[in-house]
Write a structure and sequence with these properties.
SMc04008-like fold, mainly alpha, 75% helix, single chain
C-alpha cells in the first residue's frame, strides 16, 4: 500500500470514529477515559497538536470545536452529565496509568 492511500484510510477511520462518537452522546468522556484511557478531549487535543506540528496555529478551543462540531461548552451543556463519585474515583485511579501510556 502506498503512503497516500494509507493516509487516506487512516483519515477515513478517524472521521468515522469522530462521527460515531458524535452520535453516541450517551457515552460520557469519563467512561471512555476509565475504560480506554482516552476520550473526545484527547482526540481533539491530538488533532490540535497535529495541526500545530504542521505549522497550523490552532488553539485548544479550536481543536475541540473541530472535533466536537460545536463549541465545547455547548456540547457540555447539551450532553455531559454529572459524574458519580464512583466514576470520579475510578478516573483518579486510572489517571496515572492513562497518562503514562500516552507518553510511551
Amino acid at each position: 500500500m502506498d503512503d497516500q492511500t494509507r493516509i487516506e484510510l487512516e483519515a477515513a477511520a478517524f472521521r468515522r470514529l469522530r462521527d460515531h462518537l458524535a452520535r453516541r452522546t450517551d457515552v460520557q468522556n469519563i467512561d471512555m477515559m476509565n475504560l480506554a484511557g482516552f476520550c473526545r478531549n484527547c482526540l481533539s487535543r491530538w488533532y490540535q497538536e497535529a495541526a500545530n506540528e504542521r505549522g497550523i496555529e490552532m488553539s485548544k478551543d479550536e481543536g475541540r470545536e473541530a472535533f466536537y462540531g460545536m463549541p465545547y461548552q455547548e456540547w457540555r451543556d447539551r450532553y455531559q452529565t454529572e459524574a458519580s463519585a464512583e466514576k470520579t474515583a475510578e478516573f483518579e485511579t486510572a489517571f496515572d496509568r492513562n497518562v503514562g501510556a500516552d507518553k510511551r
